[in-house]
């Protein structure tokens, strides 16, 4: 299968308009990515943006970390180190933690993590179940970070912004700013969820609905979404930078986040019976150079064994795209 560039007209439920989407690319072994033009009208986009900016300005948008690629966030590391110190402090007070860990707890996150591992393997009865779970989650997250420390990981990190990786190929944690994330207001979520059955066959569950505000200097690091499909809808486009990029494709792809437009892509292989992440769906948000970008992210999961409306047994996520025809 070669590269495809197929314009298709579809009707959008929000106000009965006809919009277009383009299958911007797919090869048989690569994720399906759709560029959605004018998925919501200029007037709807303006109204939603005005509503959201007012909520943010008045402090009525609820910050969220329910899903956030904060692997490289300096604040996240410091928050975790503080939590680890608080968990093991009672054991430090009782002189149960080796001095080589204890004396470095305030300035060395590795010491805090090592002290936690020491404590949980010897004094589990002194720790609560919540403490153990919190520590285990931190260990799991930091193990995942190891994959970024090789040459390939550093090369991918440079895709987000050249200045987060120094001359010695060391990540500058302080140079990474991931924008502000909020729970999507229910009134906006209810409107945007109406788009899903207009685009896709089957029954889909919204796993996460997040509003992300990127100011100048903000970016999103390379990551793979933990869902079957992601619908990104842009409510405000920045003046320069901020594209959504897919760097691992045979022909790397960069898509502009134009206000009122969207991007729909698939990050799992569930449709082929293999429920693992599609690594080639790795993507990142380029640094906002000028202006501000505001996007809505809907992470969608297909209900188990739900192929409603698909002709025969689906072989590809394209079979779920309502208006796609070969």
SSE blueprint and pairings:
Elements: E1 6-11, E2 18-25, E3 33-37, H1 42-57, H2 74-93, H3 99-102, H4 109-122, H5 129-145, H6 151-160, E4 180-183, H7 186-193, H8 196-199, E5 204-214, E6 220-223, E7 229-236, E8 240-241, E9 244-246, E10 253-255, E11 262-266, E12 268-269, E13 274-277, E14 283-285, E15 288-290, E16 293-302
Antiparallel strand pairs: 1-2, 2-3, 3-11, 4-5, 5-16, 6-14, 7-11, 7-16, 8-15, 9-10, 9-14, 12-13
How would you describe the overall organization of this protein?
This protein is of the alpha+beta class and 326 residues long. It folds into two domains: 6-61 and 179-320, Jelly Rolls, CATH 2.60.120; 74-175, no CATH class. 29% of the residues lie in helices and 25% in strands. The chain has eight helices and 16 strands. The protein has helices at 42-57, 74-93, 99-102, 109-122, 129-145, 151-160, 186-193, 196-199, and strands at residues 6-11, 18-25, 33-37, 180-183, 204-214, 220-223, 229-236, 240-241, 244-246, 253-255, 262-266, 268-269, 274-277, 283-285, 288-290, 293-302. The chain has an eight-stranded antiparallel beta sheet. Strands 6-14-9-10 form a four-stranded antiparallel beta sheet, with helices on one face. Strand 12 and strand 13 form a beta hairpin. Helix 4 crosses helix 5. The chain is globular, with a radius of gyration of 22 Å. The protein starts with 5 loop residues before the first strand and ends in a 24-residue tail after the last strand. The model is unreliable at 1-17 (pLDDT under 50).
